[in-house]
Every structure is written in structure tokens, then in C-alpha cells.
Amino acid sequence: MTDTSAPEFGTLIGGEWRSAAEHRENISPSDRSDVIGRFAIAGIGELDLAVEAAREAFPRWSRTSPAVRADLLERVAARILSDADALAELLAREEGKTRNEARGEVTRAAHIFRFFAGEALRLTGDHQDSVRPGVTVTVHREPLGVVGVITPWNFPIAIPAWKCAPALAYGNTVVLKPAALVPASAAALARIIEEEGCPPGVFNLVTGSGALIGDALARHEGIDAVTFTGSESVGVGIAQAGATALRPVQLELGGKNALIVSDDADLDIAVACAIDGAFFATGQRCTASSRIIVMDAVYERFVTAFRERALRLRVGHALDPDTEIGPVVDAGQLRIDLGYIDGARAHADAIVHGGDLVEGSTAGHFLRPAVVEGLSASAPLNREEVFGPVAGVLRAEDYDHAVELANDTPYGLVAGICTTSLARAADFQRRSDTGMVMVNLPTAGVDPHVPFGGRKRSSHGPKEQGTHAREFFTQLKTAYVRP
Ligand code: NAP
Ligand code: MG
Description:
Blueprint: E1 8-9, E2 11-13, E3 16-18, E4 23-28, E5 31-40, H1 44-62, H2 66-82, H3 84-95, H4 99-120, E6 126-129, E7 136-143, E8 146-150, H5 158-169, E9 173-177, H6 183-195, E10 203-205, H7 210-219, E11 225-229, H8 232-245, E12 249-252, E13 257-261, H9 267-279, E14 289-295, H10 299-312, H11 331-345, E15 351-354, E16 370-373, H12 380-383, E17 390-396, H13 399-407, E18 411-412, E19 414-418, H14 422-431, E20 436-439, E21 455-456, E22 459-460, H15 470-473, E23 474-481
Parallel strand pairs: 1-5, 8-9, 8-11, 9-10, 11-12, 13-14, 13-19, 14-17, 16-17, 19-20
Antiparallel strand pairs: 2-3, 4-5, 6-7, 7-23, 12-22, 15-16, 18-21
Helix pairs in contact: 2-4, 3-4, 4-5, 9-10
């Protein structure tokens, strides 16, 4: 069914919005009759033009004064904040997180641009004496060139922001390929960047299929680096392409994040952390707490309170002010979530609380949060990334067993512990084999000014965000000078 009344969006290439031959409808997961727009399905020809435009723009942009780049990023940040209500509504409509969650994400995107506006002016180098008399050595950072940016659907504006802002701040040019499910937020961001005075070709947007133009972008001879957030399988392919081309690749992939509820935890805090970490944003966060590891002594008390609170969460339309949990992003993801839940139901030892479809007043993908007890640590639901509102609960005999379970995963993005013991908090901080650790906080919800990223199969390459972002988005040069 094609809704020809929905607005049509093209690609942004070399500073021009170009109409496309083919479009894909962007449909709200809260209401399948709500068509947000028709978005360009770019082909290889358009991708080539975008890369060429970015290549042409690079020499000049890389040599602009850092003040010019800082000013652009600062204007983008201010504009995102002044348009925040409209951007949040658009984001909630297309991705399904609640309006409040979407507002938080939009604000975060603005804060990221603001942070990197400052970073553009803060890029320092070293100057030292050579071991050879009369010679000096400088070590400084330069941009990489054209950066290919490939982003997932679950943070439609924040992830493009945290990749594009540092890329631009340090003098790179960008070709952004957002996820096909959420092109509207990316197009809105592109419009803001363009309208706030970004020179033509410095930032380019191509929407379309990952398998076609995502893959072609990752392999394109005209790019100098790729930063990707998404699934592990696609990430591995991008790393392989990067290795063949000997190009820097940065990957942020999946997670199977543990939250330990220690026997000395404040259980109100623990329940609040588990509810937020497991179910907010419909559990569709790479940092979601999908394994809740509870020590034996508090198991019954914690799990009773956790599942009661989970079953009371109001599931519904993302824009309904009473909604606490929005819809699952699309029919495909809903099938995946239900597959894990049904697999658990079929298991004799498992108890599944919730996990049923919710009838809404609109045709949306509404799923009640699921709390699943009794499965082993090796069951698929406790092992693989579900990426939905599904939490597996595991019982730990003691603290050491809890830590062992937490680390027993191929992933290593983030882990959390709820405890009132400073010694245990400090011990877990050391022993957790993850890039990030949370104490008495949900595993999801991070700051924009400090490094973000994981270990093991969760991440590859330098960390994102904060000052450390420069480690990916710049390259070092060492110069020896005899005056
Ligand atoms: P995905 O299927 O891997 O897609 C991510 C992006 O890659 C999309 O833009 C996609 O385009 C594109 N793509 C698909 N196939 C490609 C290919 N062969 N070559 C190049 N690009 C390709 O992931 P998703 O379904 O959007 O997002 C969910 C995943 O992202 C989860 O695994 C989650 O853990 C991960 N994630 C990780 C983080 C983190 O920071 N660690 C944050 C958020 C999400 P299409 O949309 O057109 O397919
Ligand atoms: Mg996908």
C-alpha cells in the first residue's frame, strides 16, 4: 500500500537535497496506519556521488579554523534544543520510545554537539626536543578524511550525533547511512546541519538499504574510515572489509548485560534499576539489563517485587502521556522477542511472567514486559541478545558465583551491581569484564562527555564519545624539524 500523501524525502549530497527514484514508507510502530513519510532508497550511483562530494569538500574543511567548526557545532546544538519538542515527537513516532524518552535522547544529541564544539578548539599536540641536538619533534593530530557512518535504529538521533559531531569537529567529512527503519530523525538532523551553515559536501546523507548501500559504503574506495553501531554479524563483515582495505574501523555491537542484585542491596533501588535497565526504551538498548543475577538470600523478595512492578508497567502508544513502555520497533523484532518468550514457555523449568501481546487502541506492536525465571545460564534467552523487553532472572549461590555468571558471556559492554557494600562495589568494578560498570544505577543511561564502549564481542576499535573520541576520528603525525 502506498500512501502518496505522506511527505517525500530525498538524499543530501554536496549540499543539495536530491529526489530519488524509489522510496520506502516509514511507518509508526505505535500505529501502522501512521505513515511518517516516504524516504529515498538511494542506489550505488547516489552513494558514489555522496562519497565524491565528501572527498571534494575534505581539503578545505580539514583546513578551516577550529573556531569555524566549533561555531557550526554550537549552532547545531542550539537548534536541536530549540526544535527539541518537534524532534522528540518525530523520533517517538518513528522508533516507538515514549515522548519523554525521545526528549531525553534529543537533548543528549544537542549536548553531544555542544561538547564537541568545545573539543574542536581543544585539540592539542606535543612538542619536545629530539635526541639529536638542534632538532625538535612535534606530535599532532590530523583528521582521517571521509568517514562512513552507519547507524542502527534504536537511537535515531543520538547515535548519528555521537559519530558525526566528533567527525566534523576534528575536520573530517561525513557520509551518513542511517537505519532504514528510522530515516526521519536522521533527515531532520541533516537538515539542521545544512541549514546552520555546514559547507556543501562536508555532511552527506544517503538513506536506503543496509545490504546494498551500507555494504557498499563500508567497502567504498573513496572513504578513509568507518564507524558502525549495530548487530554483531554486520559488524564483523565491516571489520573484514576494513582489514582488507587497511582502514580504521570502529564498531559498537551487541550486549548481554548483567545486573547483580547483591544480598546487601537496597531492594527498592535494585527494583528501580532493574525495571529501568531491562524495560525502558522497550528493552531496545544495547546497554539493557537482560540478565538479572540475584543472590539466593534476597531472591524471593526481589523477584516478587520486580515482576509485580514489571507487570504494572503501562504499555501503549509512544505519544500517549500515560505510556511507560512504547511498542516494539517492528513486526520482525516482535517475532524475535516472541520467539525467545515462546522458547522459554516450552521449557518445563521456566516460569514466564508477562510477555503477552497487549491490545492497544491503535494497531501497534505492543508487548508486555517479560520476566523469565528458572532457565539455565546457557539457555538462548540468557545467552543471546534479545533486544526487547525481556529479562532473564538467574539465581546466584553467593557473590563470587554472581560475578562468575555476570562475566560468563561473549559480550562485555556494561554490567551493574546493586549493593550497599563499598567493598563489594569496588571489587565488582575491578572484576567485571566490561567496558562500563554501574553501581546502584541502571546499566543503561550514560553521560555524553566520557568514553562509551565495551570489550570482547561488544566493541572493536577506540571508544566513542568524550575526549577519547579523538583516538578514532584523528590520526597522529610526528614531525622532526631542524630549523
Ligand atoms: P543492524 O541490522 O546491524 O543495522 C545497523 C546498520 O547497518 C543499519 O543502518 C543497517 O541498515 C546497516 N546494515 C545492514 N546490513 C548491512 C551490511 N551488510 N553492510 C553494512 N551495513 C549494513 O542493527 P540494527 O538492527 O539496526 O540494530 C540493532 C543492533 O544494534 C543490536 O544488535 C544492538 O545491540 C546494536 N546496538 C549497539 C549499540 C552499541 O553502542 N553497542 C547501540 C545501539 C544498538 P538497514 O537498517 O537498512 O538494515
Ligand atoms: Mg537490523
